[in-house]
Amino acid sequence: MKAILCEQFGDPDLLELREVPDPIVAENQILIEVNACGVNFPDLLMVQNKYQFKPDLPFSPGGEVAGKVLALGKNVTNFRIGDSVLALCRWGGFAEKVAVDSDRVFLLPESLNPKSAATMLYTLSTSYHALKDRAELKAGESILVLGAAGGVGLAAVELAKMMGAKVLAGASTPEKLQLCKDRGADLLINYEEEDLKSRIKELTNGKGVDVVFDPVGGNYTDSAIRGMAWKGRYLIVGFSNGKFPKYR
């Protein structure tokens, strides 16, 4: 089969398309023919050897796939060959086939196409867990989403709106902010051109936001925290700008 391989750690342009052997299916695994694979920020970190999971070289990136079941390990009884599935494979998805532990595979509804399905689990599950389980976001509350035009950011915008919150979307360009508005954001902040803390206070009539959803980190963190309301909740989702914030 063909696979996109990381043979040396570095930038994505070092990845190579290679012919490799088909995966060997273990007794608790499912072999999937990959129809679509999501591309996420963890993939970029992984090929640079900066992620918490560190596969041995060479490996194929790609952590979430959608496709068809080709073969079943001897202990797998809850799937059938030919089933349409969605899977969290951690890595290995940038290939024609991937073997995945059966407890990380889910049946795909007919109403959901593979391309959409393969971009859902990382972003939506991360944002849902953050908003629902950690922040306990409630209807009527306000939330600032930083990096709101990114994968988890857009998911957070959409989910927060569904939960009844007032959504302030922060992004770095007018085009990104327009995308956030199209996805349901109530208010927009261009944090490259506007003072983040002052703009938060202005848009919330001096109260501040109840929740901050931050996948960016770096210099924006301090301003966002200072723009929170009393008893506000700050969600650390990631550090996509590569800088760990310093709290002071």
What's a quick, concise take on this entry?
With 248 residues, the protein is of the alpha/beta class.
Q: Whole-number radius of gyration?
A: 20 Å
Q: State the distance separating the first and last CA atoms.
A: 52 Å
Q: State the strand order across the main sheet.
A: 6-3-4-5-7
- By DSSP, the count of extended strands is 12
On the 0 to 100 scale, the average pLDDT is: 93
Largest sheet: 5 strands, antiparallel
Overall morphology? elongated
Low-confidence stretches: none
Question: What do you see in this structure?
Answer:
This protein is of the alpha/beta class and 248 residues long. Helix content is 25%, strand content 27%. It has 7 helices and 12 strands. It has helices at residues 41-47, 114-117, 121-134, 151-162, 174-182, 196-203, 220-226, and strands spanning 2-5, 16-19, 29-37, 64-72, 84-88, 97-101, 105-107, 142-145, 166-171, 187-190, 209-214, 228-236. The strands form 3 sheets. It has a 5-stranded antiparallel β-sheet with strand order 6-3-4-5-7. The N and C termini lie far apart (52 Å).
Strand and helix layout:
Layout: E1 2-5, E2 16-19, E3 29-37, H1 41-47, E4 64-72, E5 84-88, E6 97-101, E7 105-107, H2 114-117, H3 121-134, E8 142-145, H4 151-162, E9 166-171, H5 174-182, E10 187-190, H6 196-203, E11 209-214, H7 220-226, E12 228-236
Parallel strand pairs: 8-9, 8-11, 9-10, 11-12
Antiparallel strand pairs: 1-2, 3-4, 3-6, 4-5, 5-7
Helix pairs in contact: 3-4
